[in-house]
Every structure is written in C-alpha cells, then in structure tokens.
Design brief:
The complex is a heterotrimer. Chain B is an alpha/beta fold. Chain B is built from twelve helices and 13 strands. Chain B has two domains: about 5-245, 3-Layer(aba) Sandwich (Rossmann fold); about 255-340, 2-Layer Sandwich (Alpha-Beta Plaits), CATH 3.30.70. Chain B has a six-stranded mixed β-sheet with strand order 5-6-7-3-8-9, with helices on both faces. In chain B, strands 11-12-10-13 form a four-stranded antiparallel β-sheet, with helices on one face. In chain B, strands 2-1-4 form a three-stranded antiparallel β-sheet. The longest helix of chain B is centred in the middle third of the chain and has 18 residues, at about 195-210. The two termini of chain B are about 45 Å apart. In chain C, α7 (about 135-160) packs antiparallel against α13 and α12 runs antiparallel to α15 (about 295-300). Chain C is globular and about 55 Å long. The chains are: A mainly alpha, B alpha/beta, C mainly alpha. Chains in contact: A-C, B-C.
C-alpha cells in the first residue's frame, strides 16, 4: 500500500521534470559545452603528466563526461529539490505535508528518485554519447561494469538526497536558509570531484576529500565505471562506503525532521 | 471622444499544442474578439466575466503591455500600440508606453509591487523617483493616502510583515502617488476579510468622488460592483455581452438568490410560498430560489408565518452564476452554480 | 500573522507551479497569464516636449495640469534614464539584502569561494605540472585574472538577466512594463546582488598577482591595452547576456544555453588558446567573439603570436567587436520585446 503511494510520488517526480523539455535541451547543450572545454584542459594536463592520479588520458576524459552527466542526477551543484522544500518550510506549508499519512522524508525521497531517474535519461545520456563520439574515452569493460556503475550512481544519488534534505531541515531553525545552502553547495562542488578528480588532490587534502560523503556522488561512481575497484570485495567496499554515508545522513535527516516536527506541533504550525 | 475608447479591439493568440511526440498543431485563439466601448472621465466601471473570458487581455492592452491584433485603442488620448508611431509620425512605442504609464495606475490583487523586505515607505520613495513626482505633490498625495487608508503606523513596517489587507491598502496607495487619471484594479478585494474589503471600497468611492479618477475594476465579488460601480460590462469568449447598469444585468440574467431556511425539523418541501422556488433540502435545511431583483423581506415573512423557523440566510448569486445563467448554461448547471 | 503566511503561500505556489502552468499553455487563461511585454526603452531620443494629446473636451485643463505635475510630458535620453533607473532599482535590492546582514556576509563569502575554486583547479594543476599548453603559471593567471574581472563586472551588472525567464513566466514582468522607465534597466537591476562583487574582487586579485609574477616588457601600448580589455571584455559578456535574455521572450526555459557562453566562455578563456582544438578557437574568434574578451589582446601583451590564421591587428579590435556585440544585442532585445508584445508568450 505504502510502496504504491511512494511509487506514485516517484512517477510524479519523473513526469513533472519531463515537462521541462526546453530546459532539458538547454541543459544538455550546456553540459556538452562544459564537457568540451574541460576535456581540453584535462588533455593539456594529462599531456604533461600521463597517468596522473592513476588515470590514463582516456580515463580522465571519461571522468569529465561522467561528471557532466551526473551533475543533476547526483545533485553535484544543488540537489534540485531543496529550494522548494525550504520554501515550504519558510511559508509554513510544510505543516500540511506533516499531516499527510506518509513520511515526509520518504515522500521527498521518492519524488527525488523520480527526478534523478529523469535527469539520468534526459540529461545524462546525450552528453556522454557526444563526449564518446568526440573523444575516444574509456568505456566500461562490459555490461557487468555498466550495471555496477548504475548501482553506484543510485547510491551516490541517495547520499546527495540525504545531504540536501538535511540542509533543507535547517530552515526550520534559521529564518533565511540561504547561508547553509551556499555552504553545502560549496562543499559539494569542491569535495565531490567536480573540479578535478579527487585522486589528483594533493596529500592530506586528497585523503580527507576521499572519505567525505561527497566522494560518493561522483568519484566513487566514476571509479566503478573505470574499473578501478579490482574484484568483488573492493567493489563491495566502495558500495559500503556509499551505503554507510547514506544511512548516517538519512538518519541525521530523520532526527532533524523529528525535532522539527515537535517544534512545529508546539508552535502550532 | 471618450476618455478610454476601444473600437473593435481584437487580440489573437497563436497556440501551439503538442500532439504526440513530434507533431504540433497551431490554433488561433481570439482572446478579445471585437470589443468596443467608451468610458468617460470619472466613471467607475466594473469589468467582469469568467476566467479566460478576455478580461486581463483587455486590461493588458489598455495598459500598453500587449499590442492589439486589430482595432483601435486610446487611453487619455494616448495610443500605446507600436504601430501608433507610424500613424502619429513622432515618438516611439516606448515613449508612448512611458507616457501612458505616467497617467495610469494599476493594482493587482494577487501580486504586490511593494518591496517585500523593506519598510512600506521605501517602496513609496521609489515611486516618487521613478515617476518623477514633484516633491510637494508627492507629500500631498502620500499624506492623503496615509490618512484615508490608515497607513500611518505601517509606513515603517517591512512589507512581508503586513497582513493581506494592509498590503492591499499599501499597494493601492503606491498606485496613486503619481496622480493617475485612470486606475485599473484587478481583483482588489480578493482574499480580504470583510473589514478590509469595506475599507478598500470606501477609499475607492472617496477617490472617485474627490479626485475624479476613472476606475476600471475586474472582480469576482459582486458586492464590489454593487457598492462601487454604476456601470458594469460583462465579457465572455472575448466578446462584450452586456454593458449597462448592474440592476439591468440581474434582469437580463434573471439571476436568483437563495434563501437558506433552517427549520426545526425535517418537513416536506416548501412549495406553497409565492415568488419562491424550492431547490433542494438537506434534512431540516431547505433552499429556496427567488429572483435577485425582488426583495427577500416578504418571502421571509411568508415562510416565517407558515413554518417553524430556526434560522435563515440569503445567499447572493455570484457573478459566475449570473453569467452562466445569461449565456447558454442549462438549468441544471445554473442550479449547481447557485449552490 | 495568518494573513502574512497566506501571502507567502500565494507567491510560492506561483513559483512552484511553473511546471503545471507551462503544460497548460493551451488554455486561454494560461495565455492571458503569460502574455506581457514592452519595448526597448526610449528608442527615440527626441527631447521635444510632447503636447497633451487630443483627449479634448472639458477634462482637458485639469488633465494637462495633472500630467505636467507628474512630469510625464518630458522625455529623457535613453542612457541617462537607464542608468538612473538601474541605480534606483539596484539600490532598493541592496537595501533589501542588507536586512539579512549575516546572510549577506555568508553569500558574499561563498561567492568569493566559488570563483576561487576555479582558480584552485588551476593551482592544483600547476601543483602537478610546470606549464599548460606552453603557458607558464603567471601567464595562465593573467588570462584568468582578465577574463575573471571582465566576467565578474558583467555578471555583477547584468547577471540578473538570466533569471528573467521566471519573471516572464509568472507574469511579474507586467509590473515592470507599467512603469515609466526603461525595461532593460529594470530587468538588469532586478534582484541586484552585491555579493557578485566577490567575483570581481577575486578576478582582480589574481590579475594583480599575475602582473607581479609576469615577466613582460611593458610598452605604453600594452599598458593601455590592459584596461581596455577589461572594459571591452565586460561589455562583450554583457552583450551576450542581453542576447541570451532576449531569447527568453520566446523560450523561458532556455536560460542555461546562455550560461554555456557566459560561464562556459569564462572557463574557456581562463586557459591558453593553445590547448584547444583549432575549430573551437576559430569559433570564438569569428562566431561568438569571446576571444576578444582577453585571448587576442592578452596574446599581444604576453608577446605571443595570434592563433593560426588570425591577423595580428585583432589584438586591438576588442572595442569595435564590443560595439558590434552591443548593436546585435540591442536589435535582439527589441525584437524579443516586439514579438512578445504582439504575441504574448
């Protein structure tokens, strides 16, 4: 019964974003342009330092286009739903949501799942294909790797949701949630590997970046794609890394939600 | 020539609708389909019609935001459409728009022009400079609005902290600081409580009487029209369906009001009271329809004389109902719209 | 209190329901709500005093005195009127921002950081290599600083244009059109965000750093070329933003395409032209003339040859290109408004 409800919510999330066709086309164009520009800078870099960070040039180019494909899927530059959620909290409409016979977090998770699925198909596939045509970059070893990649993307998307949900919850306590959003945005941009692969980050900074939750969103899926995890155990370790962060952050989101709900009830909305 | 004059005004939109994945169909929609009317200086006119009838399209042409597809239009002697440049041989469309903007005021009930995070008076300061209102004139107008709309204590309050009614009063004042000769009001009382509504109406009446401001009002609230406008225009499907006095509209529309009668207990339908028509019953509550043009008093007296009354009330027909009744609605639909 | 929330709710619904509304373009009410417009402002610069039009009749005297009182019969030169409008509207937004001081400080800081990240990438790269495409760190920093400053200036002044789509869609552009002020200035100053100054500051900082590090034989021409490229670069970026905003009159959701030329262009110009494919370089010289923002004049300043197939004098052509860009943007803006005004959107 519940499952059907959330499936409906997810489908709604998918359809809702599917109506923005022009926006999708515009986004694909932009991702492709940025992919092109970044590819050339990576070529210049890997020309000078082949095998930088353990990546061949073909790996590095694949990394660029995976990043462009996952920007919206894994919320690398904003989760894509938190603005709306914060607005509902700020205006008090959230009270309506809290009285729904559904869990707030599960509701938004489902809607976001639908959104991510659409973004993967609508904005992920085309830039990847264009990139693969222009640059002869690394493709996964086989269907098994593609599947493993998709699992990593799903987990990365979940971690992204958990982070942005937690960010949105802060709006219950802060009058203007923009500051927290900005900080989260910065953190995501820097530590997800959007700017440069995390394995190129030097020394302690690199080590720190690779254990933070943002690494789940791009670096881990990209490494799965590139087959950097040799053997099942290493792959399982990568999934466990993503899964642990997902659980911890979703749990924190729930705790914040529970505290917020008490607050709303006490204040009478 | 009238102060506001429309002559066979038309506005056609081309709608592209998706049909399937790639196919698109084009369809022309006449949002305004040959409307002509004139409004004299100092008139207060209600401009009503169902959603999508072409009201806002007309207003947008009158304010110079939209260019008519056909026909002629003049407001305070200005034709704001771009083609007027060719006709008049001087001034561009933009200058016409700007000149018109100086002479009209617009208030949208559902959209504020005030600065959300700033004190009310800051928004007025911007109007002062943007409209280049001379200082003395600005002072005078602001003082008058503050007094009549009771804004004195609100001037230093950020707009986001105002109630809907306070904000609406603030918006009306903002639209009047530059002495517009015409004021367009789009749903000025929507969402307001009874007291706020009354205050807004009283202010508009006073404005019209003392300043001679011409007012064109769109609303869904018949009471606005009843209390303010001597003249009402009904538009539907882009055509002007009625132009005249409000009372006449009731006559044309044969509109009915509802008398809601709460009896002590469930009784058979009240069908023996002259001038009333039984509509339906809900337990001890019965609904009787009677012509809007006749008084409820004799009816009430007749019912009270013959039945054990607990309570009763009169429901006014809303504009949608009147219009539905006027044009094409079946009896069933009308009855439902009266509910 | 309940009322205030009601207001918030209405405005929220307007934003979020954007999707629904779009999908219902077919119904006529949707058309109404979406139809609005204006015209590029003050095309005519005639400052001759307009006569009070033939409204005639008994109302004329009172009418003209009132119209004169509100000063409506004068026209103002486009440039000064636009600047005046821009200052007024931007000033209101600055004051609005200042009501949330701590939030402003935070966003200013984060704006500074975001742009700084771009540079961190370059720093990280140079942590691994000596040069990129034959350019030293100082040279790349020079490219970064010049485009960063130009883009920052354009973004500070015109960055709001890319958010015009929402104004078009939710109908709030109507309000702008009903005011006696140039539309472009009103839209450009809308939601003016002082925090975007963070980008300018960061660009200048890197530029100064680059100038300190650079080993260039400065001549008077090169010294003059530097401020020229900053100004012309800002103008070219601004023109691209206006061009992109013009397209929003037809397609409100296409804003992201503009960012591939503005943000994307800025990223492109941070790196030496030598690392990119020749077709791409030729594209930004001849098609979308972003190369005139900094590449071409900078190559001259750095004493390097112009890209293959491009004549040497182009290093000095930026002002001309900027002017042409403005012309094209102006025409597009007017066309956008005209189409909009006659069709609704």
């Amino acid at each position: 019964m519940r499952t059907r409800l959330y499936a409906t919510v997810a489908a709604g999330g998918f359809r809702r974003h599917a109506t923005y066709r022009v926006a999708t086309a515009a986004g694909v164009f932009t991702n492709t342009v940025f992919g092109l520009i970044l590819s050339y800078t990576y070529i210049a870099l890997w020309d000078e330092r082949p095998q930088l960070g353990g990546y061949s040039m073909d790996d590095a180019l694949a990394y660029v286009w995976i990043g462009q494909a996952l920007i919206t899927v894994c919320g690398l530059m904003g989760g894509g739903f938190e603005e709306e959620l914060i607005e509902r909290i700020r205006t008090g409409d959230i009270a309506v949501d809290l009285y729904r016979p559904a869990d707030l977090q599960a509701w938004w998770f489902s809607a976001n799942l639908g959104r991510s699925a659409y973004q993967l198909l609508g904005r992920g596939v085309v830039p990847m294909a264009v990139g693969a045509l222009v640059f002869d970059f690394t493709l996964p070893a086989g269907p098994g790797t593609w599947l493993a990649f998709l699992v990593a993307v799903a987990l990365g998307s979940t971690v992204s949701f958990a982070i942005w949900y937690l960010v949105a919850m802060s709006a219950f306590w802060l009058l203007d949630g923009q500051g927290v959003v900005q900080v989260a945005w910065l953190g995501g941009l820097f530590f997800s590997g959007m700017l440069l692969p995390l394995n190129v980050f030097p020394g302690a900074l690199g080590e720190l970046a690779r254990v933070l939750p943002w690494a789940s969103m791009l670096q881990v899926p990209a490494d799965v794609y590139l087959g950097k995890y040799a053997g099942g155990w290493q792959l399982a370790g990568a999934y466990a890394f993503q899964g642990c962060w997902a659980l911890v952050l979703l749990g924190a989101g729930r705790a914040a939600q529970a505290a917020a709900t008490r607050k709303v009830v006490v204040q009478g909305g | 020539m009238s102060f506001i004059e429309l002559e066979s005004l038309e506005k056609t939109f081309t709608i592209r609708r998706k049909e399937g994945l790639l196919k698109r169909s084009k369809r022309e929609v006449r949002a305004v389909d040959g409307i002509s009317f004139g409004v004299e200086r100092g008139e207060m006119v209600g401009y009503i019609g169902p959603n999508g009838a072409g009201k806002s399209t007309t207003i947008k042409m009158l304010t110079g935001i939209l260019t008519p597809s056909g026909g002629r239009l003049r407001v305070a002697g200005i034709d704001p459409s771009p083609s007027s440049r060719l006709r008049s041989g001087r001034g561009g469309p933009n200058r016409e728009r700007t000149r018109l903007a100086q002479r009209i005021g617009v208030v949208f009930g559902q959209r504020t022009t005030l600065w959300w995070d700033l004190p009310l008076k800051d928004s007025y300061g911007l109007m002062h400079r943007m409209y280049r209102i001379p200082d003395a004139r600005y002072r005078e107008n602001l003082d008058r609005c503050v007094e009549l709309l009771d804004l004195g204590e609100l001037l230093d309050v950020p707009v986001r902290q105002l109630s809907l009614g306070q904000r609406m009063r603030g918006d009306i004042a903002a639209a009047l600081l530059h002495d517009p000769e015409v004021l367009y009001l789009d749903e000025p009382t929507i969402g307001l409580d009874v007291v706020s509504k009354a205050r807004v109406r009283e202010f508009l009446r006073e404005l019209n009487a003392s300043q001679g401001t011409t007012v064109l009002l769109t609303t869904h609230d018949l009471t606005d029209i009843e209390q303010l406008c001597s003249r009402v225009m009904v538009i539907d499907h882009g055509k002007l369906m009625y132009d005249g006095k409000l009372a006449g509209l009731h006559a044309v529309g044969e509109s009915e009001r509802l008398l809601v009668v709460d009896l002590e207990r469930e009784l058979p339908p009240i069908e023996d009271v002259p001038g009333a028509r039984f509509v339906r019953a809900e337990g001890p509550r019965q609904y009787l329809a009677f012509p809007a043009s006749s008084s409820a008093a004799p009816l009430v007296a007749a019912v009270a004389a013959a039945y054990p009354l607990v309570d009763l009330s009169v429901r006014e027909p809303d504009i949608e109902a009147v219009i539905a009744k006027m044009y094409g609605g079946t009896r069933e639909e009308r009855r439902e719209s009266l509910m | 209190m309940a009322d205030t929330r009601g207001v918030g709710r209405q405005s929220r619904v307007a934003d979020i329901d954007g999707a629904d509304r779009q999908s219902r373009v077919a119904d006529i009410d949707g058309v109404d709500r979406q139809s609005r417009v204006a015209d590029i402002d003050g095309v005519d610069r005639q400052s001759k005093v307009a006569d009070i039009d033939g409204a005639g009749g008994p109302g004329l005297v009172g009418d003209s005195s009132r119209a004169l009182a509100s000063d409506s019969s004068r026209t103002y030169p486009l440039a000064s009127d636009s600047w005046r409008t821009y200052r007024m509207v931007a000033g209101m937004w600055i004051r609005s921002t200042m009501t949330y001081r701590s939030s402003f400080a935070l966003t200013l800081f984060s704006s500074f950081c975001v742009t700084f990240f771009d540079f961190v990438v370059i720093l990280l790269m140079f942590g691994q290599v000596e040069g990129l495409g034959g350019f030293s760190f100082a040279e790349v920093a020079f490219l970064y600083g010049t485009t960063g400053t130009s883009f920052g200036l354009a973004d500070l002044t015109m960055g709001s244009l890319q958010r015009m789509g929402r104004r078009v869609r939710d109908g709030s552009l109507d309000t702008f059109l009903m005011r006696p002020a140039p539309l472009l200035a009103q839209v450009a100053a809308d939601k003016f965000a002082l925090r975007r100054f963070g980008r300018v500051a960061q660009g200048l900082l890197v530029l100064v750093w680059a100038l300190v590090l650079l080993d260039v034989a400065w001549t008077p021409v090169k010294v003059l070329l530097l401020p020229m490229m900053l100004v012309c670069g800002a103008v070219i970026f601004a023109a691209v933003m206006v061009l992109g905003a013009s397209a929003l009159f037809w397609m409100q959701d296409a804003a992201e395409v503009t960012s591939s030329f503005t943000y994307g262009g800025n990223t492109l110009l941070q790196y030496p032209p030598t690392i990119f494919a020749q077709e791409l370089v030729r594209g930004v010289v001849y098609v979308v003339p972003l190369a005139f923002v900094n590449w071409l004049p900078a190559l001259y300043v750095l004493g390097r040859p112009a890209p293959a197939g491009v004549p040497g004098w182009v290093a000095f052509a930026s002002p001309l290109v900027a002017l042409v860009c403005c012309g094209v943007a102006g025409i597009a803006w007017r066309a956008g408004i005209r189409s909009y005004r006659s069709t609704g959107s």
